[in-house]
Amino acid sequence: MPSAVRFGVNYTPSQGWFHHWLDFDLDAVRADLDSIAELGLDHVRVFPLWPYFQPDRALIRPRAVEQLVQLVDAAAERGLDVNVDGLQGHLSSFDFLPAWTRTWHRRNLFTDPEVLDGQAAYLRTLAAALADRPNFLGMTLGNEVNQFSAGPHPDPDRATADQIDAWLERMLGACEKGAPGKPHLHAEYDATWYQDDMPFTPAQAARHGALTAVHSWVFNGTAQRHGRTSVPTEHHAAYLIELSKAWADDPHRPVWLQEVGAPAPLIPAEHAAAFTEATVSNALDCPDLWGITWWCSHDVSRELADFPELEYTLGLLTNDREPKDIGRTLARAARDHTYAPAPRTTALAVPADPAARSRCAPGGDVFEAFFRLTADGARPTTVLDTRASDRDHLAARGITEVVTSDQVPPTPQGGTRT
């Protein structure tokens, strides 16, 4: 039976960006949410900035928490569900970390006992404040917090994979204590899947939390290498969805495409709508997709300084809350889509060893083989090389054929047909 996929957007306030928490204006938030609801979307992901909400380890500002609740209630009035990110963390090239973790108080975000206590208290407090709201979808621990744990961050908080395991378990547990039974999760940028020395691993992404989140950005080398209308660029989000399934223990674990956007100039403004249509259509061909949440709702105001150029134009709507072509495209998909993907019966074997993740990255043999298969119409998924002969696992996922990257023949233009 066809079913609905959730369609939403990452909420970037039209006034003041995420600094709006410093001058919270509920009427402005309501107007923003009206413009989102008018697109026919059903949820938003919102971002309290951690140092604004918890400026001292022992102070979680009640007024800030109250304002978050007001935002969630305003969303409910407009038929919008809300997922709340906790530890911001990192957004649009800026780091937002409380002073009690930096410089003179430098402590590791993932291993210091006092920092862990403060983080857990904060996440538990936010979750508890929203636990009785029927439109509260649950907590995401933070936005791409893995970028703090390794290079290329200029001052990383180093940790081992085992320490990250413990951190994830404790923080997700804190969310559960605050709001029992809600689908809490964590989310990382694609270094989790692609970077050999990243302590946040694919297995953690696919096994911790209620569902797997993937963030798809084609400025990671995909569009540079293959071009804006190539198979890899237009199917990159679908690739990450299917790549994540290799590590999942649940053969039908839901996957949330939690961030995806059309970054200029790799995706020029005049091509953004076509890229959006292709990306969404290809993601909808992936079984077990929970939802698609676009980045982002409103453009960043040109009155704000020092953002990378691409960040200013990613919105579905302008600063004046007018829908752009990309917004109208996503609105049509949300309104008109049918979700009934056939099983993906061909699986490409991927290395279970996290030290070999770069094979799955742009330019790696697994990455390139996946898109050669895609260009040939094979609709591939992935399976760990350690599970490639596990008949029960393959049967549970509907896989009837497993191939390795060296068994995939070349296709015209190396799988990058335009």
UniProtKB/TrEMBL annotation:
List the InterPro entries. Answer: GH
Provide the protein name. Glycosyl hydrolase
Taxonomic lineage of the native organism: Bacteria, Bacillati, Actinomycetota, Actinomycetes, Kitasatosporales
